[in-house]
Structures are given as C-alpha cells and as structure tokens.
Design a protein that fits this description.
Strand 8, helix 7 and strand 9 form a beta-alpha-beta unit. The chain is globular. The longest helix has 19 residues. With 490 residues, the chain is α/β, with parallel strands linked by helices. The strands form 6 sheets. Strands 1, 2, 3, 4, 5, 6 and 18 form a 7-stranded mixed sheet that branches. Strands 19-20-23-22-21 form a 5-stranded antiparallel sheet, with helices on both faces. Helices cover 33% and strands 23% of the residues. The chain starts with a helix and ends with a helix. The chain binds flavin-adenine dinucleotide (FAD) and nicotinamide-adenine-dinucleotide. Flavin-adenine dinucleotide binds next to helix 2, helix 3, helix 4 and helix 9. Nicotinamide-adenine-dinucleotide (NAD) binds next to helix 7, strand 11 and strand 19. Its cofactor is FAD.
Length: 490
C-alpha cells in the first residue's frame, strides 16, 4: 500500500473512500498498460495489486524464463564450438550465479513497472487485494473506490491437475522454479506446452537430466511438421520426451519423486526424478474478487466478455490479458489494454480479434507462428488453400552459421490472402514480425516479395517462400507465351 493511503486509512481507523474514473485490478502486463495509458490521457486512476508489481511476466514468467534460456544457450555454445573449428568444452554451471543473472534481468526491468513510476504518472497505487462491493464500488482492506469504469486484469496461475498423490509431494510451478536451491539432478516436467518445453531444454542445457510427460502431442498448437523439427532437437540434446503418455499417480519414494505413467498402448511404467515441475496449463485468477457482488459473469476460462472485452453483464467492467480467456501472452495483454483505451476512452469499435496474435516458443530452434496453420486452413477452405515453403538449408546466412534447421511455410488462399505463417529455426520470432505486419495491415502475399531484403539475413527465407508462390505465374505457360511475343517485337 502506498504510504499516503496507509496513513489516511489508519488515521480514520476505517476504509478511505475515493472516487475514480478508472479502477484497475492487477498490475501485470494488461493492468499496467491500461493504467498508464488512461492516466496519461488525464483520467484519475486507482490501481490495486496484491502481489508483485509487474505480475507474472516480470516476476515468474517471460523475463526469468528468457534469462534462464539465455544462460542455457551460452552453455550449449560451449558444446557446439567444435562445429566452428574451436575446442568444445563442458560448461561449468554455477547455479547460484545463473540465478543471480536471472534476478538481475528482473531487477533491470523492474523500474518500468514500479510503484514510483506509476505514481509519477499520477496513478494511485494500492498494494492490496481488491474485490467488488457493488457493480461500481471496489474495495481492499483499507480503501473503497467508487469507479466509473473497472478493469479486471488479474491474470492466471498454474493449473494443477487432479493426479493421485500429486498433493502429497513437493512440486514446483512457474512461481517457484526460478528460485530452486540447487540445479535439479533429474527434472520431471508434467506438460509439454510452451512452459514445459522451454524449461525442459533450458534445464537440460544447464546439465540436468530431463523427462517430459505429455498426455497428448507436445507443442500441439504449432504446425505439426515444424513442432517435430524443434522437438527432435530437444531429443538430440538428451531430453526424454514421453508424448501421448498420461500420469496415473505421483508419489515420494526414497529414490525421488515417482510418476507412474501409461502410454497410448496402455503400457504402464514409472519415471523417477529429483524435482517435479507442473506445467499443465493455466487457470484464470478469479478467487477473492467477489464477482457476484459486481454482477460480473464468468466461466472456467475467465470473465465473460463481448468481442471488445467489455463484460457481458456489467457495462462498467472490462477484462484484459489472461483473465479474459482469449490467449495468454504479454503482447496480447498489451494489445487488450489498447483495445480498452480505444473503445472505452475514444469510443471506437475495435474488436480484440481484429489483429492476428503471434506466438513464439523460445527454444532452439525457435518456433513462431501467426494466423492459422495449414491443417486448420484446409478444414475451413479446402483446396482453395496453398502453402509456399522455403528452408533454412538454402539460406546463405544459415549455412554460414551452421544453423540450417527448419524453414518457413506461408499459408494462403488462391487470391494471395495470407491466412497464416509458421517458422521454425534460429531467429523465427524476429522473422515472424514481418508476416504479422503484412497480415495486420491487410497486405497480400505480394507485399512479402515487394521489398529489398538485405543479404545475407535469415529473414530472406520469408521473401523466398513468398516468391515461390509466384513461380507458376511467373514461369508458367502464359508468361512464357507473353515473353515470346514481346521478344518477337523487339
Ligand atoms: C513461465 C512463463 C513464461 C512465459 N513466457 C512468455 C513469453 O515469453 N512471452 C509472452 O508473451 N508471454 C509469456 N508468458 C505469459 C505471460 O506471462 C502472461 O500472458 C502475462 O503475464 C499476462 O498478463 P496479465 O496482465 O493478464 O496477468 P499477470 O501478469 O498475471 O498479472 C495479474 C496481476 O494481478 C494481481 N491480482 C490478482 N488478483 C488480484 C486482486 N484480487 N487484487 C489485486 N491484484 C490482484 C496478481 O498478483 C498479478 O500481479 C509466460 C508465462 C509463464 C508462466
Ligand atoms: N514463449 C511464450 O510466449 C510462452 C512461454 C510460456 C508460456 N506461455 C503462455 O502460457 C500458457 C500456458 O503454458 P503451459 O505450457 O502451462 O500450458 P499449455 O496449456 O499451453 O500446455 C499444457 C500442456 O500440458 C498437457 N497436459 C495437461 N494435463 C496434463 C497431464 N495431467 N499430464 C500430462 N500432460 C498434461 C497438455 O496436453 C498441454 O500440452 C501458454 O499457452 C502460453 O500462452 C507463453
């Protein structure tokens, strides 16, 4: 709680009453962006945060995971040195110093999300849990605010599956994995989604033995062929990846944590490890908000909202980020804040789904995608869909750097409308930006050919794949016939 509010509240011995144009509940990626934008536009904003400023992304998500992945990448470079005529070495991993590196990344970014910065923008920050009192009143233990509008941006938390015995062992989630006392000797990972797979490769590269138990297909939202290329790399690096394998029961034994697993043929076996990370999905944080008192409808995915993120049941209320149940990314939460500002403050009619949301999984090789993938496109549009592909094996920069795994796939309609793009390979998350830009601005595949791409860059693969789309047109019968006529004139 900020000191001014604390003093006023304890002086009165009762809740301090305030009025505000906007109350924001949750100071994560979505809430902070909405609070900053609204305060900068002159609104009186009160922001409640019950935990750490910056939410999951800064403290327990994107930032620590990407810092850990960076350390792991450096470790791997030692092992790969031989490819470049250098002497490979086994990296000495000092876990305490790796953790210090992770903490220093958080500490460097922290000031952007701090109470001081937000108070400087004119936001009243209250470090307490908030709940609805009525449809327009929100309260914490010491403050009660009557608000014209209320943003719920309370995020999500790890969903712990109901597996027999899981509650009786000491397991980790994203909230504790970055604070481990020691580097795990053998990390068991339950769940092969982005969290499980990113952490599996990072810990393996840092020296842990790693086993992933995934009940379906790992990275199942990615293009299957591209996911396979990335997952094969993890396997080559020594990650044991058990797909289509369910966990029947978990127990603590003298040897370590034991998971009884069952594969799709019904065969039962066991894996034993020193530590367990549960990464089996996320649940919206709704508890303690007293949503009934606020007349706010919700379901298991989060707050029920209209396409513009406004609550379906209380017009003063908006939901942003993970709690809106429309995807779980920091950049999506930031876009949601923009949708809120456009609709609520500028009265525009922007839908949350009006731009395609890119997704990147930060493994090596990286996987990035935007729009719909081939299988989904074919389900909807049948044989109107075509796919243009190009591989890093034919990209000169990739060859020079000996990082030739993967490639790009552009999924289009016959008229050149780009439905989606998938890239697997080094730097995929940077290359996808160009595709997202073109799609977001209604450009067709022609736009991805109509620029000069610097040589030698990995991004050239996107232009080469787009150019392939034109091959039948440019080098087809019609074009040949036209050139013949023109040549005869000359
Ligand atoms: C390990 C991991 C890695 C990730 N990596 C990436 C990545 O690389 N890229 C990416 O785009 N996304 C990534 N994500 C997802 C990303 O972290 C989330 O999508 C993002 O943080 C969502 O922001 P948010 O504002 O919706 O919620 P959060 O950041 O979770 O913020 C919600 C805040 O609300 C507070 N709160 C909750 N209830 C109350 C209450 N009643 N009163 C007051 N405060 C309350 C919470 O304490 C929290 O601080 C990752 C997630 C994890 C777990
Ligand atoms: N790079 C990024 O942008 C990034 C990184 C990490 C997380 N995130 C976000 O956070 C979200 C949550 O990540 P996540 O990986 O926890 O969830 P997820 O829902 O994406 O994946 C969970 C996986 O666990 C599996 N699973 C569920 N129950 C299981 C069980 N009992 N036994 C075995 N497997 C089981 C599922 O089949 C699924 O593959 C992501 O979807 C993503 O939006 C993003």
């Amino acid at each position: 709680m900020s000191t001014t509010i604390e003093a006023a509240a304890s002086e009165n011995g009762k809740k301090k009453r305030m009025k505000a144009d906007l109350v924001v509940i949750g100071a994560g990626s979505g809430g902070l962006s909405a609070a900053a934008g609204s305060a900068m536009l002159g609104l009186k904003v009160v922001l409640f945060e019950k935990g750490e400023m910056g939410g999951d992304c800064l403290n327990y998500g994107c930032v620590p995971s990407k810092a850990l992945i960076a350390a792991a990448r450096q470790a791997q470079a030692f092992r790969d040195a031989d490819k470049y005529g250098l002497t490979s070495a086994d990296p000495g991993v000092d876990w305490t110093r790796v953790k210090a590196h992770v903490k220093s990344a958080i500490a460097t970014i922290e000031p952007n999300d701090s109470v001081e910065r937000f108070e400087g923008l004119g936001v009243t920050v209250i470090r307490e849990a908030a709940r609805f009192v009525t449809e327009h009143v929100v309260a914490s233990d010491t403050v009660q605010v009557d608000a014209k509008r209320i943003v719920i941006a309370t995020g999500s938390r790890a969903l712990v599956p109901p597996i027999e015995g899981l509650g009786s062992v000491s397991f980790h989630t994203n909230e504790t994995i970055f604070d481990l006392e020691e580097l795990p000797e053998h990390l068991l990972v339950l769940g092969g989604g982005p969290i499980g797979i990113e952490m599996a490769q990072a810990f393996r590269r840092l020296g842990s033995k790693v086993t992933v138990v995934e009940r379906a297909r790992a990275l199942d939202r990615a293009d299957p062929e591209h996911a396979q290329i990335a997952l094969d790399s993890l396997r080559e690096e020594g990650v044991t990846l058990l797909e289509r394998t369910s966990a029947n029961a978990v127990s603590q034994t003298a040897e370590g944590i034991r998971i009884e697993v069952q594969n799709s043929d019904g065969e039962i076996s066991a894996v034993i490890g020193s530590h367990l990370l549960v990464a089996t999905g996320r649940a919206p944080v709704l508890d303690g908000l007293a949503l009934e008192a606020g007349g706010v409808d919700f379901d298991h995915k989060g707050i029920e909202t209209k396409p513009n993120l406004r609550s379906t049941s209380n017009g003063r209320v908006w939901a942003l980020g993970d709690v809106a149940g429309r995807g779980q990314f920091t950049h999506l939460a930031g876009w949601h804040a923009s949708v809120f500002v456009r609709n609520a403050l500028f009265k525009s009619a922007t839908r949350a789904d009006s731009l395609p949301t890119p997704a990147v999984t930060y493994i090596s090789p990286e996987i990035a995608q935007v729009g719909v993938m081939e299988a989904e496109a074919r389900k909807e549009y049948g044989d109107k869909v075509s796919v243009s592909a190009f591989h890093f094996a034919e990209n000169d920069r990739a060859i020079a750097e000996k990082k030739t795994k993967g490639g790009v796939k552009i999924v289009t309609l016959k008229n050149g409308t780009v439905l989606g793009v998938s890239i697997v390979g080094e730097g995929a998350g940077d290359i996808i930006q160009l595709a997202g830009f073109a799609m977001s601005n209604g450009m067709k595949i022609k736009a991805l050919t109509n620029f000069i791409s610097p040589y030698p860059t990995r991004t050239e693969v996107l232009k080469r794949a787009a150019s392939k789309w034109y091959e039948p047109l440019v080098f087809g019968k019609k074009a040949k016939f036209m050139v013949k006529i023109l040549q005869s004139i000359a």
